[in-house]
Write a structure and sequence with these properties.
Hypothetical Protein Aq_1857, Chain: A, 2 helices, 18% helix, six-stranded mixed sheet, 2 iron, 2 sulfur cluster binding, protein-macromolecule adaptor activity, three-stranded mixed sheet
């Protein structure tokens, strides 16, 4: 796993690999978007991670916002209860590649790594 960028302290940590991948995906959208990370009910372990691009004008005052040199990662307050300290990584491996979530709040994680229980 690549190391997460540590300065300044952020609620959701992104490794260089995940940040580069998200920025590359955003550029394909052709507009300046932020990344919203959250949780929802579902998945094999009870809760699953969500990631979507959205317009920065949708950021709410109650949202937690982490700034990565101009790129914003946003999380709603309820999801942050489950995601504080999350490390988001990315691997381009042919098997098991994609975004990977290392969540210190998860009691159990499913085999695919995309859902958890807390």
């Amino acid at each position: 796993m690549t190391t997460a960028t540590q300065t300044p302290k952020r609620s959701i940590q992104m490794t260089d690999a995940s940040l580069n991948q998200v920025i590359a995906l955003r550029e394909k959208q052709g507009t300046d978007l932020c990344l919203r990370v959250g949780v929802r009910q579902g998945g094999c372990s009870g809760m699953s991670y969500t990631m979507t691009f959205e317009d920065p004008s949708n950021i709410q005052e109650s949202d937690e916002v982490d700034d990565y040199e101009g790129f914003k990662v946003v999380c709603d307050r309820k999801s942050m209860l489950y995601l504080y300290g999350l490390v988001l990584d990315y691997s381009d491996a042919m098997i098991g590649g994609g975004f990977q979530f290392t969540n210190p709040n998860a009691n159990q994680t499913c085999g695919c790594g995309k859902s958890f229980s807390a």
